[in-house]
C-alpha cells in the first residue's frame, strides 16, 4: 500500500495489475483488502486495479468529525487526480456505490464506465436493511465481543449457503483482523449512508452503467438495484440469483467477467 496525498488528507492506496485503470470504491466497514484476493486476482489480468482505504481506515488520515457521501466522492476524485489519471473505469459497492454515484454526478468526465454493485440511491422506493437485521448487527458491533461482531457481519453480508462455508468465513475473519475498522468510523459511515439521496439526479448520468445486485441481499435488498437500473438511462441490470450482498465474494468469476465485458464494450 502507498499513502497518497489528496488535498488536505492522505489515502492509503494499492495499485496492481495491467490494463486500463479501474478504481474500486469499498463499502461501509470495509478496507482495500475486503475485495478478497480471488476477485482482485481476476481483475488484475485485465485492469490496472486501484483499491484504497477511506479516511479513518488503515493508514489513511484519521476521521475528524462527521462524514458525508459527497465528501468521500471528493476523496475519490482527488485520488484519481493525485494519481494523474484523467479518467478510469469505476466500481463502487454498497456505500462505495453511493460514493460512485456522487462521483459520477460531480465529475462525469472522470468515468469511463460505471459499475454500481449492491447499492442504494435513497428516495421513494429505496429499501434499507430490515430493522431487525440492522439492529442485530449494531448490537453485535457494540457488544465488545469481536467474534460475535464478525460473525454477525459475515452472516448479513452473504447468502445462507455462503454463511455456512467455514473456509470462506475464516478468510473474512483474517482480512478483518489484518486491518481493523473502528466502531466510531463505521457509525460515521452508517450515518453518511442514511443521508444519501441521489434518486432525483440519476437521470442525468450518461456514461455506460452496469448495475449488479444479488437476490438474497439482506443489507440493501435487490429492489434497490432494480430501481437504480430503471433510473439511469441505458443502464444494464444484472441480477444474481441466490447471492447475498458481497456478490464478488460469492461469484468472483462472474463479477470479474461482467466488469471485463462492460469495459470492453465501451473501450
The CATH topology label is: Rossmann fold
SSE arrangement, N to C: EEEHEHEHEHHHHHEHEHH
N/C terminus separation: 28 Å
User: Quick one: CATH class?
Assistant: Alpha Beta
Helix content: 40-55%
Largest β-sheet summary: 8 strands, mixed
Number of domains: 1
Rg estimate, integer Å: 17 Å
- Number of separate helices: 11
How many β-strand runs? 8
Weakly predicted, low-confidence segments: none
Taking all residues together, what is the mean pLDDT?
Answer: 96
Strand content: 15-25%
Tell me, briefly, the overall form: globular
- Class derived from helix and strand content: alpha/beta
What is the CATH superfamily label? Alpha/Beta hydrolase fold, catalytic domain
Strand order of the largest sheet: 1-2-4-3-5-6-7-8
Amino acid at each position: 500500500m502507498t499513502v497518497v496525498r489528496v488535498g488536505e488528507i492522505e489515502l492509503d492506496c494499492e495499485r496492481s495489475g495491467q490494463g486500463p485503470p479501474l478504481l474500486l470504491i469499498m463499502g461501509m466497514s470495509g478496507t482495500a483488502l475486503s475485495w478478497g484476493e480471488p476477485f482482485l486476482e481476476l481483475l488484475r489480468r485485465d485492469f490496472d486495479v486501484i483499491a484504497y482505504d477511506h479516511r479513518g481506515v488503515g493508514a489513511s488520515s484519521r476521521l475528524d468529525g462527521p462524514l458525508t457521501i459527497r465528501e468521500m466522492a471528493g476523496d475519490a476524485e482527488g485520488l484519481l487526480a493525485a494519481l494523474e489519471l484523467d479518467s478510469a473505469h469505476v466500481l463502487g459497492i454498497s456505500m462505495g456505490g453511493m460514493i460512485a454515484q456522487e462521483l459520477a454526478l460531480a465529475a462525469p468526465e472522470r468515468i469511463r464506465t460505471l459499475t454500481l454493485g449492491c447499492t442504494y440511491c435513497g428516495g421513494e422506493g429505496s429499501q434499507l436493511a430490515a430493522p431487525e437485521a440492522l439492529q442485530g448487527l449494531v448490537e453485535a458491533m457494540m457488544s465488545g465481543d469481536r467474534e460475535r461482531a464478525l460473525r454477525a457481519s459475515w452472516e448479513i453480508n452473504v447468502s445462507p449457503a455462503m454463511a455456512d462455508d467455514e473456509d470462506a468465513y475464516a478468510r473474512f475473519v483474517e482480512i478483518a483482523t489484518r486491518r481493523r475498522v473502528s466502531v466510531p468510523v463505521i457509525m460515521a459511515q452508517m450515518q453518511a449512508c442514511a443521508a444519501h439521496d441521489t434518486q432525483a439526479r440519476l437521470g442525468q448520468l450518461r456514461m455506460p452503467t452496469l448495475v449488479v445486485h444479488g437476490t438474497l441481499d439482506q443489507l440493501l435488498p435487490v429492489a434497490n438495484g432494480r430501481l437504480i437500473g430503471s433510473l439511469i438511462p441505458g443502464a444494464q441490470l444484472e441480477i444474481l440469483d441466490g447471492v447475498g450482498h458481497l456478490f464478488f465474494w460469492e461469484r468472483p468469476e462472474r463479477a470479474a467477467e461482467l466488469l471485463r465485458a462492460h469495459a470492453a464494450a465501451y473501450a
